[in-house]
Amino acid sequence: MNILIVDDSKMNIRIAEDALNEFNVKGTIFSSLSGEEAIDFVENQPVDLILLDIVMPGITGIDFLSLANERGLLNKAKVIMLTTVDDLEILKKCFELGATDYIHKPFNKIEFVVRVKAALSEAESEKNLKRALELLENQNAELRRINKALKDTQAYVIAKEKMTAIGSLINGLTQEIDVPLTNLEQIIETCNKNSTKFERIEEYDQYAKMNGEITNVRKIINALKELTSENKQEQFTYAKLSELVEEVLMLLGSELKKVTKITKSYQDVGLVYCNVNSFKQSLMHIIVNAIYAMRDVDESEILIKTLDVEGASLLIIEDNGEGLSSEALSNIFDPFFTTKPRQHFMGLGLSVVHDIIVNKHGGSVNVDCLDGKTSVSISMNRKK
User: Fold this and answer.
1) Which architecture, in CATH terms, is 233-381?
2) pTM, whole model, 2 decimals?
3) pLDDT per residue over 329-351, tens digit each?
């Protein structure tokens, strides 16, 4: 503990020092012969207790307290006034400026030491309390960090297991579909080769249409296989943003039938470096959320656009759904937070999106709500 004695009398300083040493008061003792010197001292040295004379030439004890408060120098130091003054108004002013006690000069050694020890004990208790509070806050911060990491990990595991389960289901279904689909393709090919035997052009058109529909089915199946492929979960490559969006829209075709209007505006934003599978998963989460948000809107609309912004590729997906509250916006990326019924949804969507875009791709994702329209913007680094 640091003790500073401030008095314009060397004799008074010596008496105070002798008393503190005689009664083994623990602490390092410093002294100043003026208020100016004391101000310089506390600006450069932490002090726990100041024994301060009131009446001094130049900067008085009251002046010292005023300057120290203005400059934030006391830092919760205890201040005991050493004084011959009996003016209650002066003493009141000292207490208003931060003094905690006062002792009349000439003082009784025992009374002096008892009050000094009490002030030092209080200062030590406050220091210990401050350290305990700081330790508690650090522990709480660490617990919050660990809790968030656990939630993120849990969210990732659940999402991973979900995609694995979907992948297994899709693989099983596509294997079941492959055989009859291949047979149909062979039949269509045979019919095409014999198209000259068709009696009417309408018959040929029907076969051509069937061929086109089967090709579309094959595209959807291949896209689903690619989306859930374990072999491509960690592969990064360069891809065109608009093409990734179009593939996702194709996969969500049945869901998008619920949307009145889909407006697309694609600028040439170059190629983005991404893991195609996980990036498309994030887009699916965003678009499905948008569809859900517009479930009660008569004229629902989704706007999708790509922009070139300061060397980065920006994708914006906007809906005219019910919008989000400020509370929802502040928690939108937290794992398991959801604005949907808990019995049906787990709240993993945008948490997974944030993990994929920010943590996995080094991009950024933001959600804004203005005039009832919710906008999700994704910024990605592109090929240089």
Assistant:
1) 2-Layer Sandwich (3.30)
2) 0.47
3) 776 776 555 655 444 333 345 77
